[in-house]
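so i finally got all the pieces together for this one. its two components total, 930 residues if u count the protein bits. some of the lines might not be protein, just check the labels. i wanna see the whole assembly predicted at once instead of chain by chain like last time, that was a mess tbh
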Amino acid sequence: MVTEQVQWVPSLGLTLGLRFDGFSFLMLGLVAGIGVLVFVYSRAYFHDGPIIGRFAATLLVFSGSMLGLVFSDNLLALFLFWELTSITSFLLIGTEDEKTEARSGALQALLITGMGGLAMLGGFVLLGESAGTYSMSAIFADPPTGTAVDVALVLVLVGALTKSAQVPFHSWLPKAMNAPTPVSSYLHSATMVKAGVYLVARFSPVFASYGPWRPIVITVGLSSMLLGGYRAIRQTDLKLVLAYGTISQLGFMMVLFGAGTPEATFAGCTLLLAHGIFKASLFMLVGVIDHQTHTRDLRVLGGLGRRWPVVAATGAVVAASMAGIPPLLGFLAKEEGLASLGKTGFAWGPVVLFGVVIGSVLTVAYSARFVWGAFGPRQVTQVGDQEYVGEDAPHPSRLFVAPSVLLAVLTVLFGLFPGLVDPTVGRAYEALWGESAKSYLALWHGFTLALGLSAIVIVLGGALFWWRDRVQRLQDSVPSLPSAQKGYDRTLKGTLEGADAITGVVQHGSLPVYLGIILLTIVVVPGVPLMMDRTMPEIVIADSPLQIVIGIVMVVCALAAAVVRRRFAAVLLVGAIGYGMAALFMIQGAPDLAITQLLIETLGTVMFVLVFRHLPERFPITRLRSGQWPRIAIAVLVGVFVFAFTLLATGARTEAPISSEYLERSVPEANGKNVVNVIVVDFRGFDTMGEIVVLAVAALGVAAIVRAQRRPDESDDVEVDDDDAPAGSPPPASLDRADGVSTEVRS
Amino acid sequence: MTPRRSVILDVCVQAEFHTLLVVSVYLLASGHNQAGGGFAGGLVASCAFCLRYAGGGDRAVRRSISVPPTTIIGVGLLFALVTGFVSVVLGGDFLESSKLTVDLPVIGEAYTSSVIFFDTGVYLTVLGMALLMLEQFGSADGVDPDGEGAPQERASEAAEVDAAVDAAATTGVAASGPDGVTR
């Protein structure tokens, strides 16, 4: 085992802990090995299409993220890579972005796996906080306990089960089949969907015995295995047969890893490898068929077996591996699985075994359906208005077929000579359980329960395929199961409608109400604690008589601004208040503030005048209506609050002011004697940077609004209701530049 | 607005305009050690252009400065950003300042701080913002104070504003403007 710690965000205690052990090696083999083949295959699949560059780049990002995922030892780093795979999966499903189905499929995958990922993050945080560390190896070495941990495990499972498309979150995987076939082959069968299985495999040895873990994983896994198989045997699209088959097989893996017994884990590792090999190969073959004949409907495909013997033979071999026919790798995996589930030791073990046997029977049936449908004789000549035209489909190029053939050869080789993979699987097991494997892979274990079950499975599965028409009729006659797709659609629709309703209530577009809510918040939030604290500060009326004079002038101006009828006069009066403020700053010895305030007032007044050219000269004469009382009340409240707050705030200081420190540092550190300027451009330079960006954005925004107003067709939309417009009311911008500008934007 | 012009105002503006610009640059340059700074300087320059506007309308403003306001804003932001990153490249923190000593021919040795460049960025951004507002609100109703709006000029201005609108839309601010209120 190799570990490496890379400091990532030390201030948050975030390290990029990487760990390379036997299980990571197994996943590396899948991700990198199949990855290389998929890249080769993609070259033939896309030719030199316009999207291959973007596609290859995204696929590479995915490969990197997936490797990061299986190498991470830190839970948060794992989460990061986990989300990266979700995002790249989204991009890859939507590769052909002109297709509606591709886009909605991509979105569905992102929403469901993203939702799961969010739950998982919650679980990780709970787990990490309970354990006091986010390092997986440390948590496994000394696992925490308690209710929080149980909740955390359920949340982690939600993430794992959504990612691995398990019931009831599986609906995204069939939809993801709208992706180009290389993506389906790589992400949605061999690697990404195994991330959930991977996580369950890592956690199970330690946490399987914890309250909810084993029942949830096994129940969900078994349901997925059965439901996936049940749906797979009635699909007519080859790719959907495989997609539901993938759900079924992932369910099998979940059961094996979730059981949390050493033998089952060993079998799970084997199945992980076997499934990656045969399913990637099968998907690639579907891509070949689709690419050459332009159809994936197994009812209209016919005669390919005769004309493309190599392709057909490859398909038959890998499908047989999926069905668990000896002497292939899939058979070894299934045998190990059945054997391990035969001796789990817990009470409902036999029920699980029975379920897995039924699931395996279905697997045999849909494997046969796949081979027969793809390479057997044609069943019908026309489906709907789509007539089969692939009779003279050109033979695929060698490069196109080579990757799947190679995988088929591997599945045979590994089946015949288990010693080739036994060490790899053994090391993976060792990494999970911390002890060397007691089981070993072999074609012949003697006359065991598993062998008998395998035989029964193959016979029953064959029978199920042989009487497929009757099975089909039977499936048609029973009421269909509740569809997860409908559930997703309804949830999505409900969420959007709910969001609409909430937006309608919260953002209904009345400026007076917005302003009222904002002002009331200002009063209530700091106001309530203010009421609690009754210590009265020492009140200083004024430092100099001049202040009293200026204060009186300002009060008079404010009162006058509220009663004058002309807009222009109101603005001038508000400007005069600002000038008074500047004078007060000057008296307090803050020339910088005074200058800025003075200039801002001037400029603000000019801007107001420019805007007012478009408004009537006078405010409308309004009688006092009952509807105005709340507004008056709010205005009075805000006035009283600001007065009280200012009064109390001056006496509330308990810490030394920050200004003294700035004064000391100003000249030696920033070579400036004007400490205000030094703060603005140096000590808090980053803030200023942000502020001028806001300034620029706000200016452009205003330009956009004015521009929109000038367009005749939209002028009605932005007509400001005179009575509601707060145009005259907000004081011109004060010192806070960003706010000042945005006030202008709103007015 | 009537296209009536006052000779007295015109002449006063002529006299004050350049003086104010010089004052604004003085405020910018002296800001580090005395009252002033890029923000105040930019505001003074903006006021100078407001006077220009009061004297001759938006055409007078355009005659005084031919650079589009959006360009000025962009250059200002660029100035500030580049200043910030120069210190990073030189091995300091973002926006870290250093003392600059300049040997001026007549005055002798003078020193200032490298933040003068950052302040220049602030100055330009503020000025550009004010000019943009003048342009937008100043001619919003299409009435030209001089009464001789050249069509080409209008067209180029429209294109300019469209560019600004696009830029604003990409930053996501304009989108929440009128739409958010009415729909």
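Chain A has three domains: 2-382+393-477, 478-508, 509-620+684-746.
Confidence is low (pLDDT under 50) at residues 714-747 of chain A.
anyway lmk what u think
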